[in-house]
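Appendix B. Chain record.
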Amino acid sequence: MSEQRLRGRGQAAEALAAEFLTRQGLAILQRNFRCRFGEIDLIARDGDAVVFVEVRMRGRGDFGGAAESITASKRGRLVKAAGFYLAGQRKTPRCRFDAVLVSGPEGRIEWIRDAFGA
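Structure tokens predicted for this chain:
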């Protein structure tokens, strides 16, 4: 699959995830936050907490599900990028790391709150 097509699917999955989280009462603060440590797909506010969201999409389960694709290395980059984001805040808020998994052609969504700790 071409890189452009993959990017388009990833953006579609992130849009689905943002819409889903908004319906759940979260406010999307930023999409595709990038820094030298990596990228955070979505940054949201859930009450007084800042939520760093990793969005994963899997069309098929042949090579494991979307949750299995968030490796220890990827989690480490997310934690570093989140620390960079938080360093720019006046006050360090409560925060957590969630995952939104989009799977199948119908775009089934699974939301894992507190997917991993930092």
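Further analysis of this model is presented in Appendix C.
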